[in-house]
């Protein structure tokens, strides 16, 4: 496992919600961060069929474009009653000609569960794969998961993406009803981050 000994890390994401969470999670380690937006980087096509594959694409594209070490995050929700969908296609379910519409994506998720008459609780997992990549091509991969259930109607206006329909196990609130610090203690991203910190920053 290679340690990170730089003072600057590029967070290779175009998602502001993720970027804020990652910046908070990294804040104790005194690392300066910038994001794809700061470097004017295009959003690479995510052509792989696994979270790890897509996270690798994003991290290595950012490293190649800037020469900086980069950390990417590929994540999504796997819903038991839908055979693991939307999974790596979680963002695609929100895609419209005018940008991403997560109300539409959450509505589709619930409608498809209704269509198959999925039993309750409607189990699901948020999953996160982090890839830390260096300019010489080396990378390290870390995975995290948060089990829970899909609920309806949507609840809460905090967080981002599918947060309003995901209730983590052991809680009676959705991610959308948690403040960012609370979510950052237990989320799939926090789980992957613990491993990243132990592996590369400790
Ligand atoms: O904590 C989360 N709370 C709610 N929703 C979440 C979360 N984490 C991922 N998600 C959803 C949003 C997005 O629809 C998809 C990830 O897709 P994914 O390609 O990894 O991210 P993205 O396209 O938004 O940004 P980018 O690729 O530039 O990092 O899963
Ligand atoms: Mg993406």
UniProtKB/TrEMBL annotation:
<keyword id="KW-0479">Metal-binding</keyword>
<comment type="function">
    <text>Pyrophosphatase that catalyzes the hydrolysis of nucleoside triphosphates to their monophosphate derivatives, with a high preference for the non-canonical purine nucleotides XTP (xanthosine triphosphate), dITP (deoxyinosine triphosphate) and ITP. Seems to function as a house-cleaning enzyme that removes non-canonical purine nucleotides from the nucleotide pool, thus preventing their incorporation into DNA/RNA and avoiding chromosomal lesions.</text>
</comment>
<dbReference type="InterPro" id="IPR020922">
    <property type="entry name" value="dITP/XTP_pyrophosphatase"/>
</dbReference>
<dbReference type="Pfam" id="PF01725">
    <property type="entry name" value="Ham1p_like"/>
</dbReference>
<protein>
    <recommendedName>
        <fullName>dITP/XTP pyrophosphatase</fullName>
        <ecNumber>3.6.1.66</ecNumber>
    </recommendedName>
</protein>
<dbReference type="InterPro" id="IPR002637">
    <property type="entry name" value="RdgB/HAM1"/>
</dbReference>
<dbReference type="GO" id="GO:0005829">
    <property type="term" value="C:cytosol"/>
</dbReference>
<dbReference type="InterPro" id="IPR029001">
    <property type="entry name" value="ITPase-like_fam"/>
</dbReference>
<dbReference type="GO" id="GO:0036222">
    <property type="term" value="F:XTP diphosphatase activity"/>
</dbReference>
<feature type="binding site">
    <location>
        <position position="75"/>
    </location>
    <ligand>
        <name>substrate</name>
    </ligand>
</feature>
<keyword id="KW-0378">Hydrolase</keyword>
<dbReference type="GO" id="GO:0009117">
    <property type="term" value="P:nucleotide metabolic process"/>
</dbReference>
<comment type="subunit">
    <text>Homodimer.</text>
</comment>
<feature type="binding site">
    <location>
        <begin position="13"/>
        <end position="18"/>
    </location>
    <ligand>
        <name>substrate</name>
    </ligand>
</feature>
<dbReference type="GO" id="GO:0036220">
    <property type="term" value="F:ITP diphosphatase activity"/>
</dbReference>
<feature type="binding site">
    <location>
        <position position="74"/>
    </location>
    <ligand>
        <name>Mg(2+)</name>
    </ligand>
</feature>
<dbReference type="GO" id="GO:0000166">
    <property type="term" value="F:nucleotide binding"/>
</dbReference>
<comment type="similarity">
    <text>Belongs to the HAM1 NTPase family.</text>
</comment>
<feature type="binding site">
    <location>
        <begin position="188"/>
        <end position="189"/>
    </location>
    <ligand>
        <name>substrate</name>
    </ligand>
</feature>
<dbReference type="GO" id="GO:0017111">
    <property type="term" value="F:ribonucleoside triphosphate phosphatase activity"/>
</dbReference>
<feature type="binding site">
    <location>
        <position position="45"/>
    </location>
    <ligand>
        <name>Mg(2+)</name>
    </ligand>
</feature>
<keyword id="KW-0460">Magnesium</keyword>
<dbReference type="GO" id="GO:0009146">
    <property type="term" value="P:purine nucleoside triphosphate catabolic process"/>
</dbReference>
<dbReference type="GO" id="GO:0046872">
    <property type="term" value="F:metal ion binding"/>
</dbReference>
<feature type="binding site">
    <location>
        <begin position="160"/>
        <end position="163"/>
    </location>
    <ligand>
        <name>substrate</name>
    </ligand>
</feature>
<feature type="active site" description="Proton acceptor">
    <location>
        <position position="74"/>
    </location>
</feature>
<feature type="binding site">
    <location>
        <position position="183"/>
    </location>
    <ligand>
        <name>substrate</name>
    </ligand>
</feature>
<keyword id="KW-0546">Nucleotide metabolism</keyword>
<dbReference type="GO" id="GO:0035870">
    <property type="term" value="F:dITP diphosphatase activity"/>
</dbReference>
<keyword id="KW-0547">Nucleotide-binding</keyword>
């Amino acid at each position: 496992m290679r340690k990170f000994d730089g003072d600057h890390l590029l967070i290779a994401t175009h998602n502001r919600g993720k970027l804020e969470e990652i910046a908070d999670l990294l804040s104790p380690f005194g690392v300066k961060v910038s994001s794809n937006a700061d470097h004017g980087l295009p959003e690479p096509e995510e052509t792989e069929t696994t979270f790890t594959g897509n996270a690798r694409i994003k991290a290595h594209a950012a490293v190649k474009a800037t020469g900086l070490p980069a950390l990417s995050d590929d994540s999504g929700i796997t819903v038991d009653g839908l055979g693991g969908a939307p999974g790596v296609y979680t963002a695609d379910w929100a895609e419209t000609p005018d940008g991403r519409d997560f109300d539409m994506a959450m509505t589709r998720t619930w409608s498809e569960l209704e269509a198959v008459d999925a039993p309750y609780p409607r189990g699901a997992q948020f999953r996160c794969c982090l890839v830390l990549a260096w300019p010489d091509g080396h990378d390290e991969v870390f995975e995290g998961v948060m089990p829970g259930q899909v609920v309806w109607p949507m609840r809460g206006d905090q967080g981002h993406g599918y947060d309003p329909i995901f209730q983590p196990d052991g809680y009676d609130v959705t991610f959308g009803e948690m403040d960012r610090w609370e979510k950052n203690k237990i989320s799939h991203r926090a789980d992957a981050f613990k491993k990243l910190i132990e592996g590369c920053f400790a």
